[in-house]
Design brief:
Layout lengths: L2 H25 L5 H24 L9 H25 L2 H8 L2 H11 L3 E2 L2 H20 L10 H28 L2 H22 L10 H29 L1 H6 L3 H14 L5 H20 L1 E2 L10
Antiparallel strand pairs: 1-2
Helix pairs in contact: 1-9, 1-11, 2-8, 2-9, 3-7, 3-8, 4-7, 4-11, 5-6, 5-7, 6-12
């Protein structure tokens, strides 16, 4: 695949993930976020494992790494994905996307606490900037529309989801150093849905099965495009052009989320929301420039 084609595919992935903030709303209108994600990853996880095996010819994980992999799955799938869908349900796509975009800030802070990176003044300044931007989004991004009656709750959940998503790469880093990111992701999503599925089994009588096509279409979109296509192309992109260049496209996700929500469901964005988003990304830029990594572990990739 040519570099230009890969770049267009990555832009498409960013669009798919941005649109998921709006499309996902229909999936959790009648279903709980736990039920939604259980069905989503029950289908997507085995397919991701199959894709991983085709790409790498191995799914091996050493016995000593399964406990960490389980923790990664609980944080990245059980916790984050549940909180993500709850945030999408209760607040606007704009607010949810901007708040969750803060996850690299929490990654930087937690990396220092986990002694994976060294503390710097730029990390402190960037974090303060992003928290200030988040405060603007939280305080000025509420809407009077009845659809978002509990926007304040969705905003708080979105912020907690951002912390969980920021913690995920810190926990996964030793595994990704040893295995591939695709293999770690495929296995962790499968392990992460176990608590969700068990919850659904224990509460089977309270599960709802929507009759409308929008709910099922949202689930199908989340499985096929946001999860299988998105993750597969993302990691193919990393292998083709490198993780640093690929991560640039992550910054397009909130932009596409705001545009898609405005065009499709008429979500209104105020100036202070936009300014808050700008301040968040300014903080992200400062943190990125101030990150000082410790020497990487000298581990061989396990095949």
């Amino acid at each position: 695949m040519k570099r230009r084609q890969m770049e267009w595919l990555l832009m498409l992935v960013a669009l798919v993930w941005g649109a998921n903030y709006t499309i996902g709303k229909y999936g959790v209108t009648y279903m709980s976020s736990i039920q939604f994600n259980s069905m989503r990853f029950l289908i997507a996880s085995p397919i991701l494992l199959l894709i991983t095996f085709i790409m790498e010819r191995s799914l091996r994980i050493e016995r000593k790494d399964w406990l960490r992999l389980l923790v990664v799955g609980i944080v990245g799938t059980t916790l984050y994905q549940t909180l993500f869908m709850l945030s999408v349900k209760y607040t606007s796509a704009t607010n949810a996307s901007l708040l969750i975009a803060m996850s690299p800030i929490f990654t930087g802070i937690l990396a220092v606490l986990h002694k994976q990176e060294r503390f710097s003044l730029k990390i402190q300044i960037g974090s303060m900037l992003s928290f200030g931007g988040a405060a603007l989004v939280l305080l000025t991004g509420h809407t009077n529309q009845s659809t978002y009656e509990y926007a304040w709750l969705g905003n708080i959940i979105g912020l907690v989801a951002s912390i969980a998503w920021g913690w995920y790469p810190i926990l996964a880093q030793p595994l990704i150093t040893k295995y591939s990111a695709m293999r770690v992701t495929a296995w962790s999503t499968l392990l992460g849905i176990v608590p969700l599925v068990l919850y659904c089994i224990m509460n089977v009588d309270s599960l709802t099965w929507p009759s409308d096509m929008l709910s099922w279409g949202s689930l199908g979109y989340s499985i096929v495009f946001a999860t299988i296509f998105g993750l597969a192309m993302w990691y193919v992109g990393i292998s083709k052009i490198g993780s640093t260049k690929v991560m640039v496209y992550m910054y397009l996700v909130p932009l596409f989320a705001v545009i898609f929500a405005a065009v499709t469901i008429g979500e209104q964005v105020n100036i202070m929301q936009l300014f808050g988003g700008f301040v968040i990304f300014a903080g992200l830029y400062v943190v990125k420039k101030g990150t000082v990594k410790k020497p990487a572990l000298n581990l061989k990739k396990v095949s």
